[in-house]
Amino acid sequence: MAGLIQSPKRSFYSITNEGSQFLKTNPERIDNNVLQQFESFQEKKFKTNVLQGDSLGVNEYIQTPDEMMETGYSKIRKDLAEELLNKIKSCNPYFFESIVLDLLIKLGYGGSDEKNKKVTKKSNDEGIDGIIKEDKLGLDLIYVQAKKWENPVSGTEIQKFAGALQVQRAKKGIFITTSMFTTNAHEYVSKMDSKIVLIDGAELTDLMIEYNVGVSTKQTYEIKKVDLEYFNED
């Protein structure tokens, strides 16, 4: 801590020469304000509680500005994902199906062409909510099931979707839900010959944020550093 103590091995601490010299000044207390005078404390960014007796303790780590921004960004993104999921849940099921297909287009399916997606009719979807071409040429089709549910999706629902794929003679499908999938659902998919991808609410919002579906950029900050190559005088 600020070069005043050292730890030769785990759970063992001893005072350094610098620490001994500092104690000779008979400080009334040792806190962050006092320790700021030591360069090693400033560099390591450690926060220390007021000492009692002769003991020294290192407590909470103080983040650097870069780390604070990273922490802040993570918090903002987490809150955004939660807000986005709640917004999705408030939409009607048919609009949710459109959201799902918009995301798949952004992911590159259908050659990123809006014309290569199709939402099936509500009255006769036969267990299929949407269809999208795998590529721009439409060499294969991917069938989509979108469930705006609160309860977890079970293996039974996946089995129904797999049956719908068989009716269409399809081998690829994507099942997306605002909730989550049960262990049984994941196990069922792993044993199938057909390829079905499961996307739960958490992954859905992560993908929507990453590919800018239903979200927009609020603010952009540029973090710059000194260009050392520019100052190369050789």
Largest beta sheet: what is the strand line-up? 3-4-5-6-7
Order of helices and strands: EEHHHHHEEEHEHEH
What would you call the shape?
Answer: elongated
| Main β-sheet description | 5 strands, mixed
Radius of gyration: 29 Å
Report low-confidence residues grouped into runs of 5 or more: 45-58
Give the tally of β-strands: 7
The CATH class designation of the largest domain is Alpha Beta
Give the amount of beta strand, in percent: 5-15%
Find the CATH topology of the largest domain.
Answer: Trna Endonuclease, Chain: A, domain 1
- Average residue pLDDT: 81
User: Would you identify the CATH architecture of the largest domain?
Assistant: 3-Layer(aba) Sandwich
By DSSP (H or I, 4+ residues per run), the number of helices equals: 8
Domain Restriction endonuclease type IV Mrr: 88-208
Pfam families: Mrr_cat
Protein name: Restriction endonuclease
GO molecular function: DNA binding; restriction endodeoxyribonuclease activity
